[in-house]
Every structure is written in C-alpha cells, then in structure tokens.
C-alpha cells in the first residue's frame, strides 16, 4: 500500500508522522473520501469544494490547486491509474508544541492513499439500521477527522450486525455515522436540511438532483423519530454506501423480503447511469 505524505510517495510502513502532529493530538484536521470511476473522479470538483469549505471552517490555510495532480501521482504509484478506486485525503494542521489554540505557524500535513473500489451492486444487501441519540458536536457540517462519536456509535451497531446507525437530535433524525438518510412518504422525498447538524454529503446532493430529474419532489425537512414507522421507504446515501435501501429501522420493518421501494430503486438506477 502506497501513501502520499507531504510531497513523497512512500510505502505505508515508511510513512511517518510526528507524535506532535495536531491531527494525532487533537484530531485537528479534515478529510475527504472520493471515488475514481471509469477513469475520472466522480463529482471530484464537488468533493474538492467541500474540502475547501472544511479547511475554511477550521481556519486552516492550504493551497488545493495542485491536489488533483498529486492524486494522479498517487494513483499511478498505486497501480490504480484508470482503475475504479477510492481516494482518502487528509489534511491536518501539522506539528506544533501541544497548546489548544491554533499555532501561529505550522506546516499542514497532507496524507493520502488510494485503494481499489468495487461499486456496490444496486441489488446490494438491504441495510438494517439502528437509531441512537446524536451525542456528536454541533459542527457536523465540517468533515473533521475527529470521528470518535461516529466510531463509537458505529461499533455499537456493527456488533449487532446492523449496517448503519442513524442519529436522532431532539427527536429529529439527522444522518448516519458515515452516510445521509432519506425517507419517502406519498412520493415525496425527505432529508434533513444541510445545516450544522449533518454533513452535506456529495451523494446526498446527487440524490436530490436525481429526484428532480425523475420528477420527484424533495423536501429538505427533518423526519422525527416518531414518524419513521409511517414512512413508505428509507434509503442511505454516501460515497462508499452509494444508495442503499433500508430494510429495517430498529423494530420497524419496511420490507419482510428483499423488496426495494419504487423511488429508492429508480434513484439507484439513475445513479448507476451517471457512471
Ligand atoms: N463518510 N455523513 C457523514 C457523517 C459521513 O461521514 C459521510 C461520508 C456522509 C456522506 O457523504 P458523501 O456522500 O459525501 O460521501 C454523510 C465517508 C465516506 C467516510 O467517512 O468514509
């Protein structure tokens, strides 16, 4: 496994970061996960724009102009040029004596790796999902590497064999630990508004566009925990998840067999045609 670290391509065993890197000490950094599909980045500009937004939100200055070239170098070195792959990009504030406030001067650390990615079959196993209180912070719009709450929640539900946890903040369903959630009721699609309580997923944005393309109304309104049992369909979106049909949320079963809701299915098909 090759890694890009601050201008060098290294074997991952040889890629070393200081113990005083603020990414390690404080989780002081941001990241992106994006795909290369059929030789081009899937909504690459949107992923880079979001990275830029995350950097701005944490006041981390970093020139992204040469990032696409660096990613190309990484993909070539990883033997993934033109192959379907997942690219992980992480920028942390860099090395400085441990003090909470941002240091005046630090060189940001850029680390990236790429691995082969197989696009999930549209008929992927349907997701079963658990609800948990949203015990995360109030800046979920920043794609921060500080993912402890997401990691804790996801570990809890994975133990039970579920695919994803969805968070509930004051009774409103926000998003998953690594995906966004949508609901369908009477042919109207609902998803939490893109505010500080969710990450505005690129796949979420694509799904909203696809709804418009297929003539389905979308309302960016949160669904409450109580309404879940009254919904007709639910689905998750994310770079690694793509569009996954939700079979079950806690004890509420949407389908008893391998059915997939009409709108979920149309969106899955529309998404696969974009690639
Ligand atoms: N996660 N919400 C959260 C909390 C996420 O971490 C992600 C993505 C999403 C979906 O965003 P997008 O559609 O842009 O991938 C929503 C990535 C894939 C990860 O952490 O691995």
Automatic annotation (TrEMBL):
Keyword Transferase found: yes
Family, per entry: Belongs to the class-IV pyridoxal-phosphate-dependent aminotransferase family.
Gene3D superfamilies membership: 3.30.470.10, D-amino Acid Aminotransferase, subunit A, domain 2
Cofactor: pyridoxal 5'-phosphate
Swiss-Prot/TrEMBL keywords: Aminotransferase, Pyridoxal phosphate, Transferase
Record lineage: Bacteria, Pseudomonadati, Bacteroidota, Flavobacteriia, Flavobacteriales
Name the record gives this protein: Aminotransferase IV
Alphabetized Pfam families for the sequence: Aminotran_4
Gene Ontology biological process: amino acid biosynthetic process; carboxylic acid biosynthetic process
Gene Ontology MF term list: transaminase activity
GO cellular component, one term: cytosol
């Amino acid at each position: 496994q090759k890694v890009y670290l601050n201008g060098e391509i290294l074997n991952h065993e040889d890629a070393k970061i200081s113990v005083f890197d603020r990414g390690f000490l404080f989780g002081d950094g941001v990241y992106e996960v994006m795909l290369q599909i059929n030789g081009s980045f899937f909504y690459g500009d949107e992923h880079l724009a979001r990275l830029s937004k995350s950097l701005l939100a944490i006041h981390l200055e970093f020139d992204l102009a040469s990032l696409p070239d660096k990613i190309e170098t990484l993909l070539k070195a990883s033997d993934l040029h033109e192959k379907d792959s997942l690219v992980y990009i992480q920028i942390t504030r860099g090395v400085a004596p441990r003090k909470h406030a941002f240091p005046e001067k630090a060189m940001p650390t850029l680390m990236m790796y790429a691995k082969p990615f197989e696009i999930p079959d549209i008929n992927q196993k349907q997701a079963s999902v658990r609800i948990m209180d949203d015990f995360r912070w109030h800046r979920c719009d920043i794609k921060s590497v500080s993912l402890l709450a997401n990691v804790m929640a996801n570990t809890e539900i994975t133990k039970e064999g579920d695919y994803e946890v969805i968070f509930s903040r004051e009774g409103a369903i926000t998003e998953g630990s690594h995906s966004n959630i949508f609901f369908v009721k009477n042919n109207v699609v609902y998803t939490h508004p893109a505010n500080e309580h969710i990450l505005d997923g690129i796949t979420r944005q694509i799904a909203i566009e696809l709804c418009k393309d297929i003539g389905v109304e979308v309302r960016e309104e949160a669904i409450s925990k109580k309404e879940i049992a009254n919904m007709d369909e639910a689905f998750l979106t994310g770079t690694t998840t793509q569009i996954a049909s939700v079979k079950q949320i806690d004890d509420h079963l949407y389908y008893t067999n391998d059915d997939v809701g009409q709108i979920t299915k149309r969106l899955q098909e529309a998404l696969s045609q974009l690639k």
